[in-house]
Structures are given as structure tokens and as C-alpha cells.
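Recap from last week: sequence in, structure out.
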Amino acid sequence: MAGKSGSRGAQAEVDFSYFGGAESLTEGKRSPRRTVVVSSTEKDDGQSYPGPPQDPTDFLWLMTEEPHRSRRMVIMKAHPEVTKLMGHEPLTKYVVLGVVSLQLFIAVQLRHSHPLSFWFLILAYAVGGTANHNLFLAIHEITHNLAFKGVNANKALAVFANIPIGIPYSAAFKKYHIEHHKHLGEDGIDTDLPTNLELLCLNNVLGKTFFATFQIFFYALRPGFVRTQTPTKWHLINLVVQLIFDYILVSTFGVRPLLYLLFSSFFAGSLHPCAGHFIAEHYVWDGLNQETYSYYGPLNVLAYNVGYHNEHHDFPSIPWTRLPALRALAPEFYDTIPSHPSWPMVIVNFIRDKNVGMFARVKRLAKGSRLSGQVTPTTSGNGSDRD
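Predicted C-alpha cells:
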């Protein structure tokens, strides 16, 4: 008994998963494991490393298909009642209305405050950053047509949700995000992936700090360089509505309310607790080939349950309010997959941990490239060693 008790004490001494890996790194040793497994398996006990550290000079190139379609088919066979969770969620439009109203109210109230004053900045970070992050994720939810039954009604709601963000965003996001789902990890198509230039310039502590601070600009500008879109009428509607709103706001109340909204959008995609999900969702951790991670913590309340990210990619037609029910329906699939215990600590560990960085993303050749006989880069062995 004493031996067992001692071993448990030793394990607790090194198991920092409940704190999101908040301990100091030990120089010369591999960092403690960052992810957790709710129900450990023989394949992964949630404590040991399934694979060696990734080569930091290139991305993790895999020849396998993305995992979500196959898991979706298996879950539907095991739990055919999962289809009852699919469909639109009427609550979404009311949440959007409430958050938009809150942001516009605060913006107008700050019309006499200096943009660099303490209260202006703290409100923009704590309230505005959280609210606009919520609106980013509302647009993400609406992009999957989960607020209304009709497509145009969803697009119109996305344009409305875009208003406090300050710049037109919703129409362009839709196409890029659908491609992200259909072509997860495919180089040159999935614009969520870092580029080779980012790998070259930002693959160190200073570069990762810069990236984490200015994430919003990377996600806004990168798609245009990687894969341009053909504008549609909804791009025009999004642009015109946003410009009209910004003009009315500035001409009526001055520029400071607009600055509050723009500051809020910046903080929403910067060093903000909720912004940890941008890194948590698809960066590779702990020597795993896993390319999608969930987070089941309390910040999901503010973020349309986007932390249920494996669940979302498996079933994009299930709305945010029913993703916890999906996990509860199929725990044998989801509780055995490593997940993140903390979004804020994901940002911290991403910056300081040499075993994760801009390189820690799964990439695969686009389907057309594979069919044409092109081969993966020389580092493709990086993936085969870890299979």
C-alpha cells in the first residue's frame, strides 16, 4: 500500500495537466505533457508521449486523410440517433442581438473618453474583446447555416453580427471556413494553416509572441495571399452595410466609439483568454499526429462551445447548444481523445515551449496534387516516423 501511495504521490508531483501546464520548463528536458485524456486507453494513458518531438524545421506532412469524415461515419453507425441533434438553433439570433446591442451601447457611452485612458482600454479588452470574440464565433456558427433554416437569412444575420467588429468580414469568412472543413490541412487550400514565410520568420519565442499578439491580422490577411476569392453579392452587401454603419457612427458620435469597436476586435484576437482557441484547435502537441483538439472548460460559455472542436468537425450540422449532448452520446469516441485543459495556458505554452510552434501543424498535399503524382516534401518522413 505504501508503495502504491508513494507512486501516486510521485505521479501527482509531475502531473500538471489540471493546471494547463503552468509549471516552469526544466532546461534540457522535454516539457511536461500539455494535453489530457478523460478516459485513458491502452494506446494513450494521457501521461506518456505517444511520439517523439516534431522536427521544428518543417510542418508535419501526412499522407492520411483527415480523420473527421471517417469518425463521423463510425459514430452514425454506432449511434444513429445522432441525427436528432442536427438542425438550426433559434437561440443564436437572440444571443447575437444581445451582444451587438451591448457593444453598441458601450461604444456610444465611451464617446467622451480618451481612447488611451485606463477605462477605455480595460473595457475594450475585458468586455469588448470578449464580446467581439463571441461575435466572431457567432459568425462561425451562422456560416454553417445553424441560426435559421434559410441560407439567405443566415447570411443576413452574419452581416448584422459583423457590425460591432468594425470591418467587413462575414462574407469572406464563409467560403474560407467551409474550405477549412472540406480540405482540412490541405496545403494551399486550408487558409487556417501557417505559410512557409511564417515558419521561417516566427519560429522562435519572439516570433511566436508576435504571432499570438497579432493573430487577428494573420487570420485576416493570410487568406488573401494564399487563396483569393471571387466577390459575390454578399461580399458587397457586407461591405456596404459595414461602411454605412461606420459612417453613421462616426458622424453622429465621433470617432471614439468606432475606435472602441476596433480595439475590441484587436483584443479578441490577441493575448486574450478566449483567443487561446485559435491555437488550441489545430496545433500539434505532445508528439501526437492528432490535428484537432477539443477544450471542455468554462470559457465555452462565452464562445458558442467552439471548444468542442472535434465534435464540431465531426458534425458541422450540429449547433453549439447540442455539442455537449453529442459528446455525452458518444463518450467512447471523444473522452479517449487528448484535449486541452486550458485556453490561456495554450497561449503561454505555445510561446515558451520549444516542442510546439509555427511548425506544429499537420499539412497534406491537396487532393489534386496527390492525383497528379506529386510527392510530399523531403520532411514527409517526419510523419511516417510518428505513425
